[in-house]
Amino acid sequence: MRAYRNGTNIKVVAENGVISPTDVALDFAGGNVYWTDSVAYVIRVARMDGEYSRVIVREAEHIKPQGIALDPENGFMYWTAYWTAYWGNGAKISRSAMDGSGSKTLVNTTEGLKWPQGIAIDIQGQRLYWCDGGFHRIMSSTLQGGDVTDVFSITGLSPGYFGIVVDDSYMYWTAWALDHITRD
Length: 184
Hints:
four-stranded antiparallel beta sheet, mainly beta, about 0% helix
């Protein structure tokens, strides 16, 4: 859905084929809205007015796309996903062209993923940041998936990290079990 910033003029942007939208990202220059659908196992794109909605990535059954981040300047889309059938035995960070072509896995469970959720791009620093709700940490890698780093973790607490954004100086994140938004 979309609305003006004051909450008025609410409009359904897409509904056909949408089951459980999880995350959303905008390509302002291209005029497109992208979203993950964790129950349909797909990533979809449509014009910002909802026209021309279509599936651009179809994951295998039980692979739930979660977070999505766009790098329109370089023409890439990044997303997180995990296997629901194996809870923690299969997870990945992937990248493709913004039309969904050329999909490849950048980071997987061998690099310490469990339930990756939100994902953000630091264009200036050329790094990805993501939340892992299963291992209770925030991680980072290069845009090509190298140099995987544990940025921040909480031991003894299960906050369920979920959403993340970054700017030039900070990262901000949300967690299911915390009653506040955090900045580091």
